[in-house]
Amino acid sequence: MNRLLSGVAAGALLMASGAVFAAELPGKFTGVTIDAKLIGGQQYEKLYARIGEWEKATGAKVNVVSKKNHFDLDKEIKSDIASNSITWCVGSNHTSFAPQYPGIYTDLAKLLPKEEIDAFVPANIAAGTLDGKLVMLPRAQFDVSALYYQKSLYQDEAKKKAYKEKYGEELAPPDTFDEMAQQAEFFANPPDFYGTQYAGKEE
């Protein structure tokens, strides 16, 4: 999950600050107010508690105009585009949503010193780059997904026997995605039982 800077804010910050150098970060933006649309949720409040620190360091003010989950935020951004009412400056976004509306972004590579960008994981910077423009900086360096298995399936003697007969291997939790796919097909008995499940629409 990442952040984006829209063209409205980038122009304001660029005019207010001129070129920014690493030694000058976070910069001085006295009199600038940034309207922000942020992802909501209790897990983010510790991060947002630091907005006051940034305001004090820069002289700018942050006006949070919206806090929503990314699905609702995505709908809101699309509505803003459709009604030509992108009046906010900074917004939270996700790499899976951002490519749908590339025209609203400013190239952050033109506003930030290269050494600051280079401090991020290169793959994350690549994921935040659209059409050659760096449109997002990651607020997190990783995203972890976990897979769980149903233990009772692997303890079922009939299933263990059938699996060994079909594949010539002992039935055990998979070590690879190929094994997971094979076992998902083996266990599947739709519509009563499905071999695997993933998060779907709006998770």
What does this structure look like?
- Strand 5 (129-130) and strand 6 (133-134) form a beta hairpin.
- It contains nine helices and seven strands; from the N terminus they run βαβααβαβααβββααα.
- Helix content is 36%, strand content 15%.
- The model is unreliable at 1-19 (pLDDT under 50).
- The protein is an alpha/beta fold.
- It is elongated and about 75 Å long.
- The protein starts with a strand and ends in a 16-residue tail after the last helix.
- The protein has two domains: 2-138, 3-Layer(aba) Sandwich (D-Maltodextrin-Binding Protein, domain 2); 145-197, no CATH class.
- The strands form two sheets. It has a five-stranded mixed β-sheet. The protein has a two-stranded antiparallel sheet with strand order 5-6.
Which structural class do the helices and strands define? alpha/beta
| Main CATH class of the largest domain | Alpha Beta
Anisotropy-based shape: elongated
Question: Could you give a short account of the major beta sheet?
Answer: 5 strands, mixed
Secondary-structure element pattern, one letter each: EHEHHEHEHHEEEHHH
- Return the CATH architecture of the largest domain: 3-Layer(aba) Sandwich
Total of DSSP H or I helical runs spanning 4+ residues? 9
Helix content: 25-40%
SSE diagram, text form:
Elements lengths: L1 E4 L1 H11 L15 E7 L5 H4 L2 H8 L2 E8 L1 H13 L7 E4 L20 H5 L3 H6 L1 E2 L2 E2 L1 E3 L12 H5 L1 H11 L9 H11 L16
Parallel strand pairs: 2-3, 2-4
Antiparallel strand pairs: 1-4, 1-7, 5-6
